Amino acid sequence: MRLRRAPAFLPALMVIVALAAGVATVAVVAASGHAPASRAQQVQQIAAGLHCPICKDLSVADSPAPLAQQMREEIAQKLDAGQSAAQIRAGFVAAYGESVLMSPPRHGLAGAAYYLPLLVLAIGLIIASALLRRWLRPRDADPPDDESSPLSASQRRAVDKAVARLREEEAA
Predict the structure, then answer these.
(1) Would 151 disulfide with which of 61, 89, 96, 155, CB 3.0-4.6 Å?
(2) CATH 3.30.450.20 fits 39-103, yes or no
(3) Within the chain, how many helices (H) and strands (E) appear?
(4) What is the pTM (predicted TM-score) of this model?
């Protein structure tokens, strides 16, 4: 039984399948988010996205500080008044600055946290496609032309003579 050799494009195909699986996973995770069902969950979600101004390492949702409790009550009141989560966040940003947000804003230098992973993914796809093209490109069996050869014409003639001499010796 003869063992067949794996095709040369198999590693490239494996890279492409792995990248496609990664992209599909990211898309499923991004699409699975849903709006909270109750007012308490909405308050919790908005409060979880805000830093407590007193204890900077905790969110408003997790902080036991009296100011955080007041902020949670204010969020509930604004939700009852019909404001959206974005409007409520904007009010807290106006009052406390962008440092009140748990996640960085999508503009300026902080936007790099959102766009850098996309840039890395794009560069990875470009490199993978370049490698795939290189692996799938047919190998030339012909010797290189004189123009593309790193040897000069005299060096090429010397090599040709040496090869001819070796062939004569083998034939004899």
Answers:
(1) 155
(2) no
(3) 6, 0
(4) 0.46
Within 8 A by CB and 6+ apart from 62, the residues are 48, 52
Q: Which two tokens stand for residue 68?
A: 């955080």
Q: pLDDT tens across 90-110, in order?
A: 898 888 888 788 876 666 776
> Distance between CA 20 and CA 15 in Å, rounded?
9
pLDDT tens by residue, 106-153 = 667 767 777 888 899 999 999 999 988 888 887 665 555 545 667 788
CA nearest to 79, candidates 45, 102, 103: 45
Domain residue ranges of the chain, discontinuous segments joined by + = 39-103
Q: Two tokens at 124? A: 């990875």
Q: How far apart are CA 27 and CA 21, in angstroms?
A: 10
